[in-house]
Amino acid sequence: MKEIRGWTTNDSKALYNVAGWSSDYFGINEVGHVEVTPNGADGARLDLHDLLQDLQRRGLGLPLLMRFSDILHSRVRTLFGCFDDAIREYGYQGRFRGVYPIKVNQQHQVVEELVRFGRPFGLGLEAGSKPELLAALALLDNPDALLVLNGYKDIEYVETALLSQKLGRYPILVIDRFREVDLVLQTARRLGIRPHIGVRAKLTTKGAGKWMESTGDRSKFGLSATEIVLLLDKLRDEG
């Protein structure tokens, strides 16, 4: 006869693959409750079941949305710490400049907290539209942080980006398509502002995974090797 045993917390961990997605921020404790460790595995632990009961006693009803901003802080520290360790190990002479793409999570609280937590590290923002650009300008006030700008560009977008330099920002206009070059240079010339320009390269090598069809020579975005050379010629002509 097959032995029947009781369900254990280890069974719950395996069923929900907690180790596969939690990155040590969530777990199941010895009494079978989900717990959160906002500062990582070595930080304080909070029983979510007990927390919910406490909130209900205070008159709050379900469902509830909980935000653990310390997780954002922990991820920023971890990211920059990994790059700092690698830079020291390999004697790299440059510096890691991290940016958070607003499109990942556009909620005001998330972006605001990341900017605040990332200030000591110089964490910047990436925007891909005019609304995201305006949001970034409102939140990012660290002159040491980069503001990386890509996506569709019209005159208003480029003007706003360039004029932000007078506010102490460091915008980098990323050229996604070759036709954007003239728009950026003409606008910069008219405003009398020297632009910071980045380039999205279209690599011949194709990637793998879900987005592999958008890579390689047939990629919709990015400049080919020939276009990059032409871009450099234009920049030299502009001085």
UniProtKB/TrEMBL annotation:
InterPro entries: Ala_racemase/Decarboxylase_C (IPR009006), Arg_decrbxlase (IPR002985), De-COase2_N (IPR022644), De-COase2_pyr-phos_BS (IPR022653), PLP-binding_barrel (IPR029066). Keywords: Pyridoxal phosphate. Its cofactor is pyridoxal 5'-phosphate. One of its GO terms (biological process) is spermidine biosynthetic process. Pfam families: Orn_Arg_deC_N (PF02784). Residues 95-231 form the Orn/DAP/Arg decarboxylase 2 N-terminal domain. The keyword Transferase does not apply. GO terms for molecular function: arginine decarboxylase activity. PANTHER family: ARGININE DECARBOXYLASE, BIOSYNTHETIC ARGININE DECARBOXYLASE. This is Arginine decarboxylase.
